[in-house]
Sequence to fold (223 residues):
Amino acid sequence: MSTIVEAKAVELYASRAYVVGITGASGSIYGVRLIEVLLKFGVKVHIVISNAGWRVIKEELGWITTDRDAVLEEKFGGLPGSYQYHPVADIGASIASGSFRVDGMVIMPCSMGTLSSIAHGSSENLMTRAADVMMKEGRTLVLVPRETPLHAIHLENMLTLARLGVRMIPAMPAFYFGPKSMDDLINFLVGKVLDSLNIDHRLFTRWGDTNEQQGEQHPHRTN
Fold:
């Protein structure tokens, strides 16, 4: 990310804090990229990763996850924002309480099991409890489901949550902006999530805009 773009983002968003959850659905790179971009924007990020999520991260991204704190520091340390990792079993963590203030939560990717637990109010671990807190406190909750095909129970659970105001952003990258790489497809979906959080970005070229109007499109990269 260019120095000018990064400095402006940090100035705008340094006071914000979000919870980012990663579950065992395929597509862990989505959540990792979201955390990276938020940290580069100066945001405080509370990270929750399910046990299945850690396994998928290991298999899809090749991370060595035996020391979870160490690998997170290796990947996210030194960025303008700050992060705090919460083990998924720590039901007494700060983000489990509505009195602890954050601006919202994103689960990216969100498995159908986690989505079902949230839809039915089953706060069985820190991930689902934190999501329940977002709903009861009227804060932004964004879920990025990643499953195909979808059966009726999946769809009914999504409808239940959508009716409660939860933003559903399925992992469906677009092609109208002419993606040239896997990074472009990942950035598009992360950008759509940032739109829901009201965070300005240049991760992809919007419909009707030129590349020049968008400017720097890849804030996760170091040039």
User: Anything to note?
Assistant: The first strand starts at residue 17 and ends at 22. Residues 180 and 204 are 11 Å apart (CA to CA). Strands lie at 17-22, 44-49, 82-87, 104-110, 140-145, 167-168.
